[in-house]
Structure formats: C-alpha cells, structure tokens
Amino acid sequence: MVYGDLQFFDIIIFAAIAGFIIYRLRSVLGKRTGFQKDNSSQKRAEKVKAQTTEDIPSLLDNQQKLEKIYKKVNNFDHKEFLEGAKKAFEIIITSFNNGDKKTLKNLVSKDVFLAFDKAIDEKKNNPNSQFYSLVIDSVEDAKVENNIISISINFISEQMLNDDESKIIKNKDTWTFEKSVSSNSPMWVLTQT
Predict the structure, then answer these.
(1) Coil vs helix vs strand at 184
(2) 3-class secondary structure, 70
(3) Interior angle at CA 66, CA 60 and CA 67, nearest 5
(4) What are the residues facing 155 on neighbouring strands?
C-alpha cells in the first residue's frame, strides 16, 4: 500500500502547484466577471481623438476656426487652402473687372454668377482696376455640414485705378468657399460674397 500512498501524495503536490499557478495568473491578469463595462471602445475613441489632435497643425489666432475642418476632414491643408483662396479672389475679381463671364462661370456658384453677370451687364465693373495688395485678414467661419466643407474668409484688398498709386481703393470682403468632403479636386466654389 505504500505505492498507492505515493500516487495520492503526487496528486496532492500537482494540485497544489496548479492552484499556485492559477492564483499567480489571476493576480497578474485579473478576472472578468461579465458584469464589467467594456472600455475597449472608449479607449479606441480616445486614441482616435488623440491622433486627430496630433494631426492638427499649429494655427494662427485668426485661423483657429479651421480646427473644425481638421477634426472632420482627412488630408485638409489650411496653407494650401488659404493660398488657393487668395489666387481665386484675384482671378475672380480680375475676371469680373474685365467682364470675363466665361472664367467666372467655372469658379462661382450659380447664384453668385447671376449677381456678377447682372453687375457686368449694368457696367458696375471697372476694367481699369488692378490689384495693388491682397491680405487674408481672418477666417470668419469654418464648418462641415451635410458632407460639404464651407469656409468663410475675410479679405482686405487694395485696388489701383488706371495704374495711379494715388487712386487706391481699399475693400474688405467676406467670401465663402465650398467643396464636397469626398471631392479629390483642389477646386473650391465661391458660394457667397
């Protein structure tokens, strides 16, 4: 019977070792009872928010509203947008002053085109006006609604009449540019002046 007692003793030793291993694993890994909240989705959302915040470049005080666009639109570049807005402003005003309806039609919304068209027909444009300077004063508004990005810019422009620097007219304009979030085109459409 001594042999049978040894088997019983071996089983007790192995059970004690297994119990110790289970205890150590449980203390290291913890336990889940089924009634705890699943924090993995919350942690994923915090991680995405942290990544999004890291992706927002430092903006000037007068550009802070563009942060809304960075949070909702991938691959947005405010420097590229603002440079494009300045170029668009110059092209649109020059086209308006020269009565170039064909160029205007491709850069502005239907409503804005109708307003420019009427002003050109009524001779409210001035072909003798040239740009002297153009500055983006600030971002008035920036939002994404119904899959459309909408950004309003305050421009301060100076235009010279008949190449005479003593005849400079200073204007402040607020223009709104729009584009679809899903659009890969660099083109924005002027929707409000």
Answers:
(1) coil
(2) helix
(3) 90
(4) 136, 173
